[in-house]
Design goal:
Its main location: membrane. It comes from Colletotrichum fructicola (strain Nara gc5) (Anthracnose fungus). GO terms for molecular function: amino acid transmembrane transporter activity. By secondary structure, this protein is mainly α. 67% of the residues lie in helices and 1% in strands. The protein has one domain: Up-down Bundle (Amino acid/polyamine transporter I), CATH 1.20.1740. The chain is built from 19 helices and two strands. The protein is globular. 54% of the residues are buried.
Length: 533
C-alpha cells in the first residue's frame, strides 16, 4: 500500500490543519501521528517476534519437552487473548502515547501510573541489550573470534540512527525489517513440513518422532510426576516471555494515523499471530529437534556458546546435512533480532516520554526535535542498551538468562497492571452510564476474561521463581533477577503513594473525555481529506 496523500483544504484553520496532518497532541505532547496503517501492522510484528521465538524457545524445549512446550503455549495464548482484549478496548477508546501507562494514572491512581510506567520503561530499556547479546550469540554460527565489543557498539549505533529521525522513518524501516521476519517464519514452517515428510538428504520421514524420543513431557529438577510438572512450568515461563505483542500497539497509539480504525485492525491481527506464529512455532520446534539433542544441550544447557548456532532450527538443519539453508536462516535471524531490538528501543523512549507527560519523570524529558523525537528520552534509552557490555565479563548464555528473567518479571507486572486498568475502566463506564456497545471496540467476555487473566498472571508472578527456594538452589543473583521487577513495582507504587498522598480514582470522576475530541476530529478530517491511492 502506498503512503497517503494529504489534501487538507485551505478553509481549515491552523489547528485543524495540524490535526488533519497528525501534528497534534494533548497539551505538552509533541509527538506526531505519522504511522500509517501498514506501518502499524508491521511494528506490532517487529516488537513481538525476535530472539525469543527463534532462540529462547529452545530453553522451553530443553527443560520441558515438546508436549510441555505446546501445552504451555496454548494455555498462555488463551490468557494473552484475554489481556489483549482488555488492552485493545481501552487503547482504541483513548489512543494516547504509551496508552496503558497514561490510562493507569488517569483511571486507577497516579501512583499506579507511576509504578506501571517505570516498570515498563526499565524492562523495555533492558531488552535492546538482550537482543544485542543475542546477535553476538548468533554470529558464533560463522566464527567465534568476532570481538563482542565491536558487535555491541555497532548495534547500539544503528539503533540510535533508526530512532533519531522521526517516527515515519522508524516505521518505514520496521516495515521492511518485519517483512524479513515473515519470510523467515514461512521458510522455517516450509522446512519443517517438507523434512518431516522425508524431504531431507537422508530421505527420512521422521514425522513426530522427536515428540516421543525421549518423550513429550520431560522431567526437570526432580523425577516422576513432580519432575514432569516442573518441566511444564519451565516451558510455561518461556511461553510467558515469548508471547507478547499488545503492549507495543498501545505504546505507539499516540503516533498512529486514524487510530480508531488502524488500531482496531492491528489488535485483531494479534489474535491471529498468537496462533500462526507462537503456537504453530512451538509445534514446529518440537517436530524438528529432540529435546535431548547434544548440540542443544551443550549450547543452552551447559552455558557454553561454542561456535555452533543456538537456534533450534539451525541445529536441526545441520543435523540433517542441509548445508546452504542454515546460512540463509541465520542471516534472516540476525535481521529479525535487530528489528526486535529496534522496536524495544522505540518503546522505551516513548514510555519514558509518557512518564514525563504524567509528571512522573523530569519535565526536561519532554523536549522533542522538530521531527517529534523525544531527544533526552532517546539519550537515556540508548544509555541503557550499554548494559550489553556485561557480556564481556560473563558468558553470553548467562547474560541472556539475566535479561530474560528481568524482562519476564517486568512483562508480568505490565500485564497484571493492564488487567487492573481495565477493571477500573469498566467500573467507570458503568458508573457514568456508558454503553459499552457504543465503544469504538467492545471486547468480548468482559470483565470475566480480564479477571481470569489477572488471577492466572498473578499466580505466575508469585511462583515463577520457585526453583530458587528448593533445597540447595538458593542464589541471591537468581532471586533478584526473578523477583527484582515485582519488588521494584511494590516500592515505586508505595513510595509515590506515600510521598504524593494519592488516592484511587472515583469511578464517577474518572476522565473518559480526555483526548477523545482531538482524536475524533483527526479521524474525521483524515477520512474526508486524506486518500490512499
Amino acid at each position: 500500500m502506498s503512503e497517503p496523500m494529504s489534501k487538507v483544504p485551505e478553509k481549515l484553520d491552523e489547528q485543524q490543519t495540524d490535526i488533519a496532518n497528525g501534528d497534534f497532541g494533548s497539551e505538552n505532547e509533541a509527538l506526531r501521528r505519522h504511522l500509517s496503517p501498514r506501518q502499524v501492522q508491521f511494528f506490532a510484528i517487529g516488537g513481538s517476534i525476535g530472539t525469543a521465538l527463534f532462540i529462547s524457545i529452545g530453553f522451553g524445549l530443553l527443560h520441558g519437552g515438546a508436549g510441555s512446550l505446546l501445552l504451555a503455549f496454548i494455555i498462555q495464548g488463551i490468557m494473552m487473548t484475554f489481556v489483549t482484549n482488555a488492552i485493545a478496548e481501552m487503547t482504541i477508546f483513548m489512543p494516547v502515547s504509551a496508552a496503558f501507562i497514561q490510562h493507569g494514572g488517569a483511571w486507577v491512581d497516579q501512583a499506579w501510573g507511576f509504578m506501571l510506567g517505570w516498570n515498563f520503561f526499565v524492562f523495555e530499556a533492558f531488552l535492546p541489550a538482550f537482543e544485542i547479546t543475542a546477535v553476538d550469540l548468533v554470529l558464533t554460527f560463522w566464527r567465534d573470534d568476532i570481538p563482542s565489543a565491536a558487535v555491541i557498539t555497532v548495534c547500539i549505533a544503528t539503533y540510535g540512527l533508526t530512532n533519531a529521525f522521526g517516527v515515519k522513518y522508524f516505521g518505514e524501516a520496521e516495515f521492511w525489517l518485519s517483512g524479513g521476519k515473515l519470510i523467515l517464519i514461512l521458510l522455517l514452517y516450509c522446512f519443517t513440513f517438507v523434512t518431516m515428510c522425508g524431504g531431507n538428504p537422508q530421505k527420512d520421514a521422521y514425522g513426530f518422532r522427536n515428540w516421543t524420543k525421549p518423550e513429550p513431557f520431560l522431567e526437570y529438577l526432580s523425577t516422576g510426576t513432580s519432575g514432569r510438572f516442573q518441566g511444564f512450568l519451565a516451558a510455561l515461563w518461556q511461553a510467558n516471555f515469548i508471547m507478547v505483542g499488545p503492549e507495543y500497539l498501545a505504546t505507539c497509539a499516540g503516533e498512529v494515523q486514524r487510530p480508531r480504525t488502524s488500531l482496531k485492525t492491528a489488535f485483531r491481527s494479534v489474535y491471529v499471530r498468537f496462533v500462526l506464529f507462537f503456537i504453530l512455532g512451538a509445534i514446529c520446534v518440537g517436530i524438528v529437534l529432540s529435546a535431548r539433542d547434544p548440540t542443544l544441550v551443550k549450547v543452552l544447557g551447559s552455558g557454553e556458546t561454542g561456535t555452533s548456532a543456538s537456534s533450534v532450527y539451525v541445529i536441526a538443519m545441520r543435523n540433517m546435512g542441509v548445508d546452504a539453508l542454515p546460512h540463509a536462516v541465520n542471516a534472516l535471524l540476525l535481521t529479525s533480532i535487530y528489528s526486535a531490538g529496534d522496536c524495544y528501543m522505540f518503546t522505551a523512549i516513548r514510555s519514558l516520554y509518557a512518564l514525563a507527560q504524567g509528571g512522573h519523570a523530569p519535565k526536561i524529558l519532554l523536549k522533542t526535535t522538530k521531527n517529534g523525537v523525544p531527544i533526552y528520552c532517546f539519550a537515556v534509552s540508548i544509555g541503557f542498551s550499554c548494559l550489553a557490555y556485561l557480556k564481556l565479563s560473563s558468558s553470553t548464555v548467562t547474560v541472556l538468562n539475566w535479561f530474560i528473567n528481568l524482562a519476564t518479571g517486568g512483562q508480568l507486572v505490565t500485564y497484571i497492571a493492564c488487567c487492573v486498568n481495565y477493571l477500573f475502566f469498566y467500573r467507570a463506564l458503568r458508573a457514568q452510564n456508558y454503553n459499552r456497545k457504543d465503544l469504538p471496540y467492545c471486547g468480548w467476555f468482559q470483565p470475566y476474561g480480564t479477571w481470569i487473566a489477572l488471577i492466572w498472571l498473578g499466580l505466575i508472578e508469585i511462583f515463577w521463581g520457585y526453583a530458587v527456594f528448593l533445597p540447595g538452589s538458593w542464589d541471591v543473583g537468581t532471586f533478584f533477577s526473578k523477583y527484582g521487577m515485582i519488588l521494584l513495582s511494590i516500592a515505586t507504587f508505595s513510595g509515590w503513594k506515600l510521598f504524593k498522598r494519592t488516592s484511587f480514582v472515583d469511578p464517577y470522576e474518572a476522565d473518559l473525555i480526555w483526548a477523545r475530541p482531538a482524536v475524533d476530529l483527526h479521524g474525521r478530517l483524515m477520512a474526508e481529506y486524506i486518500q490512499y491511492p
